[in-house]
Amino acid sequence: MAEEVAHRLRAGGIAFIEAGTGTGKSLGYLIPLGAHLLDDDPEGRAVVATYTLPLQDQLLRHDVALAEKALGRALPVALAKGWGNYLCLLRLDHLARGQHDWLEGLAEEQPPRPAIDELIRWSEGAGDQGRAHAGTWSELPPGRWETVWALVAAEPDRCPRRRCPLYEACFYHAARRRMLESRLVLANQHLLLADLALRREADSGEAAVLPAFSYLVVDEAHHLEDVAVSHLGVELSSEAVLARLRRLTRGRSRLLGEPARAALAVLERLFYALRRGLERAAPGMATGMARTPGSVQHPARLTPGMAETLCGPALLGEAKEALEEVASQAEQLAQRMAGQEGDGEEGARSHAAADLVAVARWARRAARDLEAVTSAQAEGYVFWMEAASRAPGLVLRAAPLDVGPVLAAELFGAVRAAVLTSATLADGPAGFLPLRRRLGLASAGDAPAGDGPSSSPASPAPAPWAGEAQAEWDEDGALLRAVVGVSGAPPVVRREEALTECVIPSPFDFRSQALVAVPSDFPAPDRPGFVERLAELSLALAVELGGRLLVLFTSHRMMAETWKEMEALPAAGSLRVLVQGGASRTALLDAFREGRGEGMVLMGADSFWEGVDLPGPTLSCVVLARLPFPVPDHPLVRARAERISEQGGDPFWEECVPRAVTRFRQGFGRLIRTRQDRGAVVVADPRLLTRSYRHRFLDLLPRSSLIAGPAHRIVREVVEWTRPSLPSS
Length: 729
Fold this sequence. Notes:
Number of strands: 21
Strand order of the largest sheet: 11-12-21-15-20-19-16-18-17
CATH architecture of the largest domain: 3-Layer(aba) Sandwich
Organism: Carboxydichorda subterranea
Helix content: 40-55%
CATH class of the largest domain: Alpha Beta
EC number: 3.6.4.12
Largest sheet: 9 strands, mixed
Structural class: alpha/beta
Number of domains: 4
Protein name: ATP-dependent DNA helicase
Keywords: ATP-binding, Coiled coil, Helicase, Hydrolase, Nucleotide-binding
Pfam families: Helicase_C_2
């Protein structure tokens, strides 16, 4: 991997590298990247962008040091975080003086003085600006800081920059100076794309976070398209808009009270009308969607003219005009304050003017976003509404259907070389071509969509595993044993003038370490009785294995139903069940890790499919509740499918299956983390045995052993398989 990265850094262009678990991906790019920056391009700078913050932290605290040891030299490195992660000393000073709410009244009561004093003491002790995390949220002492932090976090629209009297002591600007002095900047993909989106706005150049860079490494790159969609689209929350308008009506200055009250009244009527229209237009569309507190549900697609039909064109026009009036009044007040002279309070006026400019920019953006989503007319975008779980909350969204042109021109086109890597990038026989198309990096000579080996099969196989190599039935004919997945072959490398494609298999022996088990007597996940059978199977496995079980779901609703069914079973009392939502993700993983998984079952969805690292006997079995296909009724999924159909393709095979396979591989990857690990992945979805797409899932696994049979036999085989690795053995 290091050789391929080094070649692409010298030659320029793009490298796609799929590197299996245990490859050492971070060292595979950090060592050649450091050597190139130190030896070949002394003026160059590189950004490494991860998807998860834990990986970003691992790079900073551990992997960069290993790379420096290998290089024999120090590599100047800095950590990049967004504005809101840093304490603003000026806002803290105003909070301590009781001057923070002069324009916007508090949503909550004034924080208790002891909390403010503790924050001041912490800020004074965090003054070593040479530290990567100095003055950031992640270093706060234990406690509930959310309310206070919202009042003191740095914000680009509020920042007076060099005019600030505390500029030299500012944590954010110290971090930015460290980035400008560094050769390597560690960021995350959300910050990378937020930076790109900010630079695209003419008035937001100063708000950009990342310095100029020549080289880019994107780790966990299978997420990049979705991250780009979220940052290049629009999200307008009714709760956020109304909350800020209410704060403006309660501000002590009363400067914006009148226009804010007028806007609040109009926007409340608008969002109420849209919510009622949504409830009429999309009853019951939340099937399969998350239903946890604070989640959104009932996604309904917006088409041109639909919003006006729901609430009336006059009300939409009033809402936009009211927001524009707030912006206009704030701008006029800011100009008047900036023009005042001679009273010896320049600093206070500067801060007040900055607050007013921030409100003006926010109101103008809100009006612009409201117009964009409700008109639903922009070419190449899909528009929809989501009802928040607490009425009358509403979220308006717009998302680009194709982020490739922007990424190709403004991200990859702006660097000399880029490396995209992950354990799950390639798409079977189609290789990296589907991903390259989505990222705008397919060339004119590539096969058109729908051609080649990635097309759907003509018909499903006549019977499960008919003619499958190395497949055999047990003597009683109840249990099928097979070998699935790719072999541990040498890396596959394809080089062109400006493109490298490389697949490096995991060095682990999955055939002797990992068992894939599928209960053949389960109903399909959407059929009656599935949740009950899943709860029984999960509980039986946990009891026999002494806990050490992770169950992954594709919906919060199914997770809650399975948990409820498990609790009703007699054996559940011997286990501790940790469920996503009962505590933070970090707290749940820490509890499972500290208890070494003994007597524990961890249930999760969404983010638990990846980034969970529980090596050794702590985790012996992973249950995948169902194959992770995207929700078909979601407006973005449906719009993508329509576009593929218009282009003559098959949406299921070109869009749904590849995304599900990537997610499936990520879930499988939670089990084997070291050469010593041994365990089983139980896929409770019988479609993995019978549907024509089964090969697309199984062929992309590492070479592994598979069994299929009745659930009671699955439990017995899993226990026998994992027994050698259990602490009691």
